[in-house]
Amino acid sequence: MSKRPLWRELYIQVFAAIIVGVGVGAVWPHAGAAMKPLGDGFIALIRMMIGPVIFCTIVHGIGSMRDMAKVGRIGLKAIILFEVISTFALALGVAAAHLTHPGTGIGMAASGNAAVADYVQRASHDGVVAHVMAIIPTTFVDAFVHGDLLQVLLVSILFGVALGQMGEAGARITKGVQQVGHVFFRIIGIIVHLAPIGAFGAMAYTIGAFGIGALVNLGELVAVFYATSAFFVFVVLGAIAWLLGFSIFKYIGYIREELLIVIGTASSEPVLPNLMRKLEALGAPEPVVGLVVPMGYSFNLDGTNIYMTLGILFLAQATNTHLTWSQELLILAISMLTSKGAAGVTGAGFVTLAATLVIVPEIPVASLGLLLGVDRFMSQCRAATNFISNGVVTLAVARWEKELSLPRLKAAFAVHPEPEAILR
């Protein structure tokens, strides 16, 4: 059997598209900025499938479990791990800001602009009560119309629990939902082949619209954020992976195609279905994957957490705002709440940062304008960190449930075959 040519590998195509996109955006900025619809279109194609995929996966997982206590146990374990790891990420952002002082010496006066005003306007409706109420859709179908992950998660859990209580009739419906889910996954497989085009468009737009100069002007902050995120991935998540019995480097190599798509599009949503399939291929049971991964996209945003605390302290340093330790602890506590509603899409981290600053009056909200130029570059790192963390935490929950198949996991890391091949 002849080996597949390297240029036909999706991750190679995506990587090449990112490089070309950077070149186009740097050399022809106006043309690069005009490529934005390519990236947006690819994300929109994937996003239209995410609601049905999550619904089918969760409903089949819970409906076939028959043990509702187990569903609650898995959810509780996931939330515990989410909170512990997310809190560590928030604290890591604070520590990085104090160690490096990226905002010291900038001395820029905060001035408002239309873009900042728009983010603040969105953030003003982004309180804790609003987050909780937003979980409940207006109607059952409304959750899918707007594509809200938390709403889809709620209706999927309710539907799955109801099927689990219906006996034989529920089992037949559950089987049908599984088959429909296979169709949606097949559609995702077709759309993913457009990933190089989407990555090219998103990267060309980023460089063309914001320019390399934005990175140079605030380079220290960007460098500190990337270094802190790398520390979190390779040290913190690396330690968790080691305890689970695998290398974080092996895991990142296993999800390299999806990770490049995340970096190229600055969003982790396009690869959510693929992540679920690959985690199942690693030996995590479908009910665990179907429940934990969608929850993680709203409750386990570690890259966003690092960005929030680091960004807030950067703005405090840049505007010469002195914060006491009690005020920093308050920021930490507020960030734990405001970060929970941020989905894995571009710009959500900036909105939650604005929401936190609205609650913390010491730092002028208008200072957010200092971050506008580099937010897109930081968004790529946020999304990638969130994506890696969600996979590792899902495997940790599966291991905690004593349902992670270590032989399948080692076999997958040994040869990197297609997920469908391992599942078969």
Q: Can you give me a brief rundown of this structure?
A:
Helices cover 76% and strands 0% of the residues. The protein is an all-alpha fold and 424 residues long. The protein has a single domain (7-423), classed as Proton glutamate symport protein, CATH 1.10.3860.10.
Distance between the termini: 20 Å
> Given this structure, which CATH class is correct?
Mainly Alpha
Order of helices and strands: HHHHHHHHHHHHHHHHHHHHH
Let me know the CATH homologous superfamily: Sodium:dicarboxylate symporter
Q: Specify the structural class.
A: mainly alpha
Mean pLDDT: 78
Describe this structure in words.
- This protein is mostly helical and 424 residues long.
- The chain has a single domain (7-423), classed as Proton glutamate symport protein.
- It is built from 21 helices and no strands.
- The chain has helices at 10-27, 29-33, 36-63, 68-100, 114-123, 128-134, 142-146, 149-164, 167-192, 195-217, 219-244, 248-254, 256-265, 272-281, 286-299, 302-318, 325-338, 348-359, 375-400, 406-415, 419-423.
- The model is unreliable at 109-116 and 419-424 (pLDDT under 50).
